[in-house]
Amino acid sequence: MSTLPQIIPHCHSTLAQTKSHLRSGSCHHNISTIVHPKWLLDSGASHHVTNDIENLSLHNPYDGTEELVIVDGTGLHISHTGSLTLPHLSSHLTLSNVLYVPSISRNIISISKFCRENRMSVEFLPDSFLVKDLKTGASLLRGSVSSGVYELKFNSPTVFASTKVSPFNWHHRLGHPTLKIIKFLTSNFNLNLPSISSLHCTSCACNKSHKIPFSLSTISTTSPLECVYTDLWTSPIPSVDGHKYYIIFLLTITQNTHGFHAIQTSYGKILPKTSITLYSDNGGEYDSLKHYLSIAGVSRLTTPPHTPEHNGYSERRHRHIVETGLSLLAHASMPQKYWSLAFSTAVYLINRLPTATLNNSSSYHRLFHKPPNYLKLRSFGYLCFPWLRPYMKHKLEPKSLPCVFIGYSATQSAYHCLHLPTNRIYTSQNQSNTPTISTPPTSTCPLLPIPENTNPTPPHSPPPPPTRTVVTRLQNNITKPTQKLNLHASIQDKTTEPKTISQALKNPLWRDAMDAEFAALVRNQTWELVPPSSSQNVIDNKWVFRIKYKADGTVEHYKARPVAKGFHQRPGLDYNETFSPVIKPASVRLILSLSLSLSLVVSKGWSLRQLDINNAFLQGTLVDDVYMVEPPGYVDPKNPSYVCKLSKALYGLKQAPRVWYQELRNFLLQSGFKNSIADSSLFILQTPESTIYLLVYVDDIIITGNSDTHLHTFITNLATRFSLKDLGALSYFLGVEVRPYSHGLFLTQQKYICDLLCRSKMDAAKRVATPLATHPPLTLACTALNDPTEYRALVGSLQYLSFTRPDIAYSVNKLYQYMHRPTTDHWQALKRLLRYLRGTLNHGLVLYRDSPQQLHAFSDADLSDADWARDTDDYISTTGYIVYLGRNPISWSSKKQRTCARSSIEAEYRVVATTTAEILWLCNLFMELGLSSSKQPVIYCDNAGTTYVSANPVFHSKMKHLGLDYHFVWENVQTGDLRVAYISNTQQLANILTKPLPRSSFNSIISKIGLFPWPTILQGYDKAIPSQS
Asked: Which of 281, 473, 730, 816 is the most exposed place for a label (fewest CB within 10 A)?
């Protein structure tokens, strides 16, 4: 057992009981104020007590009427209250609400309060005591008994000096005031700060620079509300909570400021009703106040036209608020969209700071006749852990979450805390802040997340020990020091990347990424510098910065690359042909399904691997003459006016993807691969010893084969030609997470959905059971959106989500049809779809291992008994089909037909023709892969007339205008390439792709088509899709 720190005992008086509300169970009254660096553990005391104010790191004068009653009934005067930290080798032990009683002889620790505050337990033994951590049960302190009492003893009364907060930290907590104000607070409010002669803050230097002030125009007043100055401030960008303006009301005499945020400018309801005179400028935003002022008997004075100097009080207060708010944002490295939160905090702090105008008193003190409580102040933008038990739905959820402190409640004695993953703001009275490093930052560059190898202390861990090292045998209770975190750096990492090179150069991680990319450009001999010429079409370029994330949302790496502005290229001059290698989604799902089923045939192999080509576009050699300016930040000092003649393809060039594809294709063909005709991004290698399938999506590659040895050999050969990263087993590809489980693979885009919900602020929205309402149908007959930008961006993002979610294919297609003129109804339908995604966040597509290699499909058109054209805007039906390989969904589509159908048979037959084309394409792909289907493909249709027409020309006279579709389907049926069979409407799975369904029908289909939540898959509740025959 490791040796615990010993506590030297010291004698004190016998414990006794009292009945006072504030009681001390062990100390006698003694007028002497001899300071003892000893603390007595007292189970009969209700409060901690000290006789030396130097022991308190923070303290305020005690304004209560209670006295400390000791054992003989004597009442002792309480001078101050404060807090302190007892430093120890294993943890910091916090004592809050400590009473400073100068006339008491000993320092007392209330055991009950000590255990509650520090989550500790104290075990009393006959000749010693132990202090234990409640969570781990580990012993932290051991002491002995002397003269019948338990005592903590420290070497010096100055042991508490380490708990003093630095002037810079107080400078940040108070909202970046001047050094003069901090010194005044130190001397008058006992902040217990070390002396300092100067204080340099980069955030203040950047955000508080100003010109020489003008003289103020004042109005003499005798009461606080006799005259109220007011002014409106307009932000150049909307805040994160949707505000564009804020207005202040400045009370005379007290100088107290009230700030309000607003989306529009109408303030009749928020003006203080007891004011006598309102002084403002001539802005039109105050016109709405005229009627209210006349009713309330409030007079209004205005400044002369174009003379804001006459409203100097408001203008100066605006400057103070803006400078303080911007300093808070800069120090916390927060984006500017959080200005409303910073400005509200600035107003709160300004009202509590002393000012020379009020004879070194604060506005709060002058208005409420009591000093503010500086002990409750926290540093803006710092990590905190608020108590969130009332917000949680059940007892198994955590009682707290890591949040960012963003200000104070205006109506409650509570804090506002922002939870980063959900962007939800919590209001909590209780919160704990992580310890912070007291040294000021040396630059204005944003702080970055702590690298993984630093192992920061988790929120529930004990606070860090002092720097003194203790050698012990057991180290299971040792925690590393908590680092200073700036959580709004995490906000920037998840939502924004640097937009300019000047922003990126402030961050060493981005600077390293730029250096690595430029080194790769030089290594690949991407260009040569040549003198500029008037005949050259010299294009510009810019640095683009991206953060690549893993499937769990953590940062994988920072990517920086110079991108050419290819939109300045001229066809025929510096480019001719364009093409991008993009694998078809159906090909990806088919290869994944085949790798599962074929792995049952052989004992080893058919593992899925993932590769990433480094600087892929730089691998291709240009044949066109392309000239570009030198990348910003990397201009050759010897030839600053030269231009780059590109010899290698660069990102942004129109021909760059094609050049890279040709380079890769040539290498693969030389290695024995064949390029698929059905999908040009699929390459196939078949030899007597092995089979390898390779899929290309620009520079991302999926590879699988029947021999791990041959796979490894090929990857090694590929790495000799191209610089690449072997990412190992396939797990996260193009935003799709691939999770293997006992019966196959589970494909999900959960992270993509989370990011989409957070971006649209729908991450806390109420869930719904279906993606689209059945009634009323969506039409153009509604009010158009004023700004359709967000609608178009979200619908465009949802398009990619249908890669693994056929359940939303129809909804996305329907919303996409109104991109040219979205209305308020369409916006509500889009929000409903996002609410559905939030409720099905953990749903994904299942690919089974034991799926037979047989193609069959379900096809449908949106028709009913009386109306087969559901779209009342143009009466055009929707085509929907889903193709299976055994039990696995491989391909699906929900698309509007090109022309209006005159009958239900015509609408359905067009769907069958489209499905036939898809099945024949998959059959050709099957043949290229060296495989064959065991049975004839079948298309299931719920329209009997369509099945008759596909087999016999019984309705030929009515189908002349569908001649091409008719002959295409009929000929393939006659040759035996496929079969069209009838299925009842209740068994038609394609219904989900052509119309909005009620909840019961929708839920019955999504499980049949292969969509399940991840926990259900683990529990084995998945239902097999029956093979149709």
From this structure: 473
Same domain? 901 vs 795: no
Q: Is residue 241 one of the residues assigned to a domain?
A: yes
pLDDT in tens, 696-714: 998 889 999 988 889 999 9
Whole-angstrom Cα distance, residue 499 to residue 560? 11
Q: Are residues 825 and 782 in the same domain?
A: yes
How does DSSP assign 944-995, residue by residue?
HHHHHHHHS-TTGGG-GGGHHHHHHHHHHHHTTS-EEEE--GGG-GGGGGTS
pTM over 0.70: no
Output phi, psi for 308, to 5 deg: -65, -20
Q: pLDDT for 368-415, tens place per residue? A: 788 888 878 888 888 888 888 777 767 777 888 888 888 888 777 888
CB 26 within 8 A of CB 162: no
End-to-end CA, the chain: 72
Residue 654 has pLDDT above 70, yes or no: yes
Clarify whether residues 249 and 122 are in a common domain.
no
Burial of 414 (0-12, 13-18, 19+ CB in 10 A): middle
Return the sign of the alpha-carbon dihedral for residues 501, 506, 507, 508. positive
Number of domains in the chain: 6
Told to judge if 612 belongs to the known catalytic residues of this protein, a careful annotator would answer: no
Residues 258 and 387 occupy one common structural domain:
no
Examine the fold and report which residue of 334, 351, 374 is the final residue of a domain before the chain moves on.
Answer: 374
Alpha carbon 216 to its chain centroid, in Å, reads: 45
What six digits make up the tokens of 303? Answer: 């400044």
- The DSSP bridge partners found for residue 335 are none
Catalytic residue among 42, 493, 755, 942: 42
Residue 88, in any domain of the structure: yes
Residues 957 and 905: beta-carbon distance below 8 Å: no
Q: What does the DSSP 8-state code read for residue 464?
A: P
* Alpha helix ranges (H) inside 47-148: 111-118
**DSSP alpha helices (H): ranges in 788-823?**
789-801, 809-816
What burial class does residue 65 get, using C-beta atoms within 10 Å of its C-beta: 0-12 exposed, 13-18 middle, 19+ buried? exposed
